Amino acid sequence: MGLCRTFRCSAPFVVMGVAARSAGSVFAVLAVVVAVCLALTACGPGPGEAAPSGASTSAQPVSSPATPDPRPTPASSTGAARNLPRPELPEIAKQNTKEGFAAFTQYWLDTVTYGLETGDSGPLKEISLPDCKMCNGYIERAETAKSKGEWNVGPKWWISEFTSNMRPDADGRALAFFALDESRSTLYSSDGSVAKSIEASTGGAPKAVLAKFEVGRWLMSQSGKA
Question: 225 near 205, Cβ under 8 Å?
């Protein structure tokens, strides 16, 4: 556009310079000047001139945030468990019978494992009485590990030889005894190093459990060595 202005301002002088020539020559010169200006105008803004409003500019690539992997991922040496479904309480564990008591005890152990591996102690809290020392100990372990960026792989437990006379004590709690198999377990520090490891065990000393059945469900009162 700057060059075009120059040509437009110079046009009268060009015409004056050729005044002595024929009219056809004058029109020919003017035609050349106009053509040059139109060509320069089509080329865009000149030096120091702003681009027209609304002109497109080079698009800048926009990076999208990484999408978390929604797939269930078990705990491993590379990190804590993610997206695991909560343990599901079996229907039989809702019954006030020896079989229901045994199923509930296994479910309670599964919620402990879930809490240690994911840092989510919610399911364990839901089925534990406030004065259950063993329950509170596992809840604290799970929440402390999560706050420190630590995580557990295992342990997993399997009960067998479960027995109970189903007679509630003065506090309404039933007592049971059982054998317990335990998988190997490892506690990892936030940097991925092994902080603690416990080997697997089978059988061993009998275990005992105290639980109360009320309002259609079992609640853990205490668990530990017989």
Answer: yes
Does residue 63 sit within a domain?
no
Report pLDDT digits (tens) over 30-42.
343 334 333 434 4
Q: How far apart are the first and last CA of the chain?
A: 96
CB 175 within 8 A of CB 138: no
Bridge partners (DSSP) of residue 214 are 217
Separation of alpha carbons 192 and 80, rounded Å: 10
Tally helices (H) and strands (E) across the chain. Answer: 5, 7
**136 and 201, same domain (yes or no):** yes
Q: Which two tokens stand for residue 194?
A: 């092994």
Give the phi and the psi of residue 181 in degrees, each rounded to 5.
Answer: -105, 140
Q: CA–CA separation, 4 vs 36, rounded Å?
A: 8
Confidence of residue 60 (pLDDT cuts 50, 70, 90): low
Question: What is the CATH classification number for the domain harbouring 125?
Answer: 3.10.450.240
Please indicate, yes or no, if residue 16 is contained in any of the structural domains.
yes
What does the pLDDT look like over 203-214, one tens digit per residue? 888 999 999 999
**What mean pLDDT is predicted for residues 81-102?**
97
The reply to whether 204 and 102 lie within a common domain is yes
172-195 pLDDT, tens digit per residue, is 999 999 999 999 999 999 999 999
